[in-house]
Amino acid sequence: MDIKELFAKQEEMKQKTLNSKNEKESEITKVMTFYIGDQVYGIEIPYVIEIIGVPHITVVPGIPYYIKGIINVRSKVVPVIDMRSRFGKEEKEYNERTNTIIIEESGVSVGVIVDEVIGVIPVYQKYIANSPDRIGVNDNKFIKYLLEMQDGIKLVLDVSKLIFDGDMFITEE
Amino acid sequence: MAKVEPGMEAMVDVYIFETTGLLEQLDEILLRTEKANEFTEDDINEIFRIMHTVKGSSAMMGFDNLQQLAHKGEDMFFIIREAPEKMTDVGFVYDLVFQMSDLFKAEIDMIQNNDDYEPTDFSEMISRLEKGAKMLKGELEDDGGTAAAAPAAEAEAPAAAAPADSTTVRVFFEDGCKMENIRAFMLINNVKESVDEVEIVGYVPEDIESNQDSANVIIDNGFLMTFRAPDPKAVFTAIENSLNVQSYEVVDNVAASAPAEAPAAEPAAPPAAASGTAPAASAPAAAPAPKPAAAPAEKSKAPEQKAPAAPSSGGGKQSLISVNLQKLDQLHDIVGEIITTESMVISNPELEGLRLESFTKSARELRKLTADLQDTVMSIRMVPLTGPFQKMNRIVRDMKVKLGKDVELVIEGDTTEVDKSIVDNLNDPLMHLVRNAVDHGIEDTSEERVARGKPAKGTVKLSAMSSSGEVVITISDDGQGIDTEKVIQKAERNGLLTKPISEYSEREIQNMILLPGFSTNDVVTEYSGRGVGMDVVKSNLSKMGGSLTVESKKGEGTSFIIKIPLTLAIVDGMEIMVGDAEFTVPISVIKESFIVKRDQIINDTKRGEMIMIRGVCYPMLRLNEKFGLPSDVNDIEDGIVLLIESENRGICLFADKLIGEQQVVVKPFPKYLSQYDIKGQGLSGCTIMGDGSISLIIDVNRLIESH
C-alpha cells in the first residue's frame, strides 16, 4: 500500500471514528520495533509470525552473503537474512539479545536477524512522516514510512519489498 | 479450467475425473473385445452404460458438443445391443469408437487446462458415427430384422396383453434421483406433448400419481410404458430427452412368453448389476464410481436408497474413494513432522542421565506406531503401474494398424506399485520407448523375421518389478537389435564422438542412441525418427531420479531398462559431516567409503587431486572446499572418502566423518531461495534431522557435472 492510499484510508477512518465516537485519534496499526545498530526499525504486526532467538543456522552454498542460511522453525525450513549485513552495516556476533523475527508475506516466510527487539507500539496518523527520502540512508528502498515520535525516528520496513523486491524476485514453483 | 455455469465449478473436477476414468475403461473393454474378437452381452451393456453416463454428465455440465458426440456413440451401441450375435464385421466400429474416445480425451484436456475454453465442433465425427450406425443397421436388417433379442418381460407387464402394433418400453431412472413415480408421470406427459399422434396404452405401476410406494417398484423393476405411435423413434427420443432417465429398453412387443423368467436374467438389469460384472474389477485403480457423480441428486443420495435399487449387485460396493492429492501431501508432511518431533521429545537433552524405564517403554511403543503410520501414509500414495501400462496397449494397437506390423504387446508385473507422482510422469517416457520398439525395433516385415528364424509375430514386452527401493521397468523387443556400425557412423557424422572409434565399447556405442540429436532412422515417420525422444526420455527420467540404459544384441532384440526410485519423498541417506554442516548422500549412489593414505593421492596440475581405485582414476572433490565450509579436517588421512557413482560417472567425495545411515524426508528449499541457483551447486533439497538440525541433500549428478 502506498502512502497516499494509506493517508486516504486513514483520513476516512479518522472521520468515521470522529463522527461516531468522537475520539481523539485512531490507531492505524501496531508496529514491532527493534534495533539494527543504533537505529530503531519497525515491522507491522500483521506480517510477524513469531520471534525467536538465533537458532542453529545451516549454511547453504550459492546464496548472497546476507542470507545466512536456513533454520528449522517448528519443522518448517525458513531462510534467515542478517539485517545488518543486508543494510550494509558491519556484522556483529550474535548474542543473547539478538532475535530472529519470522515474517511472512503471501506464503513466503523469511527470518530476519535483528540486534534486539524492543516492543510493540501503536501507530497513529500523526506520527507518520511524509517522505522516507529525508533519511539519506542506503536502506530506504525498504522503508514503507517513518514514524516521528518523541523518543526518536522509527523506520517501518516494507515487508513485501523486503521479500519480493530489491535485487531479488521469486520464481513460482 | 474452463468456465462453466455458475455453481458448477466444483463439479468440473469430478466430471473430468469421472469421464477420464470411464473413457479409459471404454478403451480397455474395446481392446479386450477386439483381441477376443467378440462382444459379450456384458461388454455391450458396460459400453452402453459408459456412453450413457458420459452423455448424461456432459449434458449436466453444459458441454453440449460432448453430449452429442457421446449420444451418437451410444446410438451405435444401441443398435449393437439389439442383436449382438449378428455382429460379424465390426472392425470399423472399433476405429470409430477409438477415434471418438480420443476426441473426447482431447476435449476434456482442453476443458481442464484452458481458461477460455471454446467447445470444439464435432460435426464431422458425429456424421461419421451416424454413417457407422447406418451401416450397422443395414447389416442388421439384412439379417432378417430379428432385432428382438430381449428375452424377458415382467409377468405383470401390459406388453403381454398389449395389441401387436404397440410398443412397450422399460425405463430406468437415475439412481437416487428420488420421487421416481413423479418422474414417471412427467415422462408420460413429456411423451404426450412432444410426439404427435402418440397413444399411451398403459403403464406399470399404474398408481404412480397416488401411491408414493410406487417409486420403489419403479426403482426395482423399472417403469413400463406401452404406447402406440406411427413413429416409435420419436417416442424414444422423447424418453431420452426426459429428465433423469438413466436408460430404457424396448421390451419384446410380440407378446413374449416366459412370464416366469427371473428378472435377473434380463440383459438390461439395473446398471448397478452391470457394474458388478464389469471388467473394472480387475483394475481397481482405474475403476471410477459406477455412476455419474455429476448427477444432480448425487449429494442427497442416501446409501440405503441404493440398496433396494441394486439388490443383485452383492459385494459390488465401491471400496475406493478419490482424495485430493494435496490433502495427501499435507498428511504426508504432517507425518514427517510428527516423526521429527517425536525424535526431539525422546532424545531431548533434558532427559539425559535420568532413569526413565516406563518412559523408554512408552517411547518405543510410540516409535513403532509412528513408523506404522508413516508406512501407511506412504502406501496410500502408491499406485500400481496398471494405468500407464494399459495405455501402451492402445498405442501398440494403433501402430500395428498404421505400420502394418504384426506386433504383440506382453505386459508383466503391472501391479508393481510406485509413488503417484512417478506414475504421472511415466506416461511420456513409456510411450516413446514403446513406439520406438515397435517402429525401430521390430523388423519391417514378417518375412524378414521368418528368414532370421524368429516367429512371424513380433513381441514387445513391457515388464516391471521392484527391487530394493527401486522399480525396474524393461521395454524389450525381439526385433533387429541395434546396429552398432550404423550408430557409430552416425555419431561420427553428427560429431558426437569424443575419442577414437576403436576405443568405444559395445555398451558405450549402444548408449549413444540416448544422446541428444541422435536418430538412426533415416526416414522420419509419424512415430519416431526426429532425433528427439530418447534424450527427452532420459532427461524426463533423470528428473524423477531415474536412469535409462540400453542393452541390445544385433539380430536378437533390444531392451531399454528404466530404473526409478519407488518414491521421491523419502531417501535412504548416509549422513556425513563437513565442518559444522551435515549433508545427506543418497545410499543408492555410494559404492564404498574408505580412508585413504596420502600416497594414494595423485596430484594432477590440471584436474586437481585424483585417486586410483582398482585401476580406475577418480577425481577427488573436497566438500569443504566445494561448499566453502571451514573445517578442521584438512588432512586427507583424517577424514573419510566416499566413492559415488551415477550414470556411469564416478567421483570421490572427501568429508570430515560419517555419522550413519538414515531415512530422511526430502523437503524442497524454501521458496525465497528459489531465485538462487542452489541446485546448480549440487544440492537437491534439505531435510530436518531427528535433533531438529537441517541436513542438505546432495544431488550427485549435478555435483559431478559442476565439478
Task: Throw out a few tags for this protein.
heterodimer, A: 173 residues, alpha+beta, OB fold (Dihydrolipoamide Acetyltransferase, E2P), six-stranded mixed sheet, 3 helices, globular, B: Four Helix Bundle (Hemerythrin (Met), subunit A), Helix Hairpins, 5 domains, five-stranded mixed sheet, 20 helices
Q: Helical residue percent of chain B?
A: 40-55%
| Mean pLDDT over the full residue set of chain B | 75
Strand content of chain B: 15-25%
Task: Give me the count of strands of chain A.
Answer: 11
The oligomerization state is heterodimer
Strand order of the largest sheet of chain A: 8-1-2-11-10-9
How many helices of chain A in DSSP terms?
A: 3
Q: Which fold name corresponds to the CATH topology of chain A?
A: OB fold (Dihydrolipoamide Acetyltransferase, E2P)
Structural class of chain A: alpha+beta
Rg from Cα of chain B: 32 Å
Spans of chain B of at least 5 consecutive residues whose pLDDT stays below 50 are: 142-163, 253-316
Largest sheet of chain A: 6 strands, mixed
| Fourth CATH level, the homologous superfamily of chain A | CheA-289, Domain 4
Order of neighbouring strands in the sheet with most strands of chain B: 14-18-19-17-16-15
- Helical stretch count of chain B? 20
Give me the strand/helix succession of chain A. Answer: HEEEEEHEEEEEEH
Q: Can you walk through the features of this model?
A:
Chain A has one domain (3-164): CheA-289, Domain 4 (OB fold (Dihydrolipoamide Acetyltransferase, E2P), Beta Barrel), CATH 2.40.50.180. Chain A contains three helices and eleven strands, in the order H-E-E-E-E-E-H-E-E-E-E-E-E-H. The model of chain A is unreliable at 167-173 (pLDDT under 50). Chain A has 173 residues and is α+β, with helices and mostly antiparallel strands. The two termini of chain A are 26 Å apart. Chain A has helices at 3-21, 83-86, 159-164; strands spanning 27-36, 39-44, 48-52, 67-73, 76-82, 99-105, 108-114, 116-124, 128-129, 143-149, 152-157. Chain B is an alpha+beta fold. Chain B folds into five domains: 9-147, Four Helix Bundle (Hemerythrin (Met), subunit A) (Up-down Bundle); 158-265, Histidine kinase CheA-like, P2 response regulator-binding domain (Alpha-Beta Plaits), CATH 3.30.70.1110; 325-383, Helix Hairpins (Orthogonal Bundle); 385-565, Histidine kinase-like ATPase, C-terminal domain (Heat Shock Protein 90); 570-706, OB fold (Dihydrolipoamide Acetyltransferase, E2P). Chain B is built from 20 helices and 22 strands. In chain B, a hairpin with a 3-residue loop joins strand 10 and strand 11 (557-565). In chain B, helix 1 runs antiparallel to helix 4 (91-113), helix 6 (180-194) packs across helix 8 and helix 13 runs parallel beside helix 14. At the A-B interface, strand 4, strand 5 and strand 7 of A face helix 11, strand 21 and strand 22 of B.
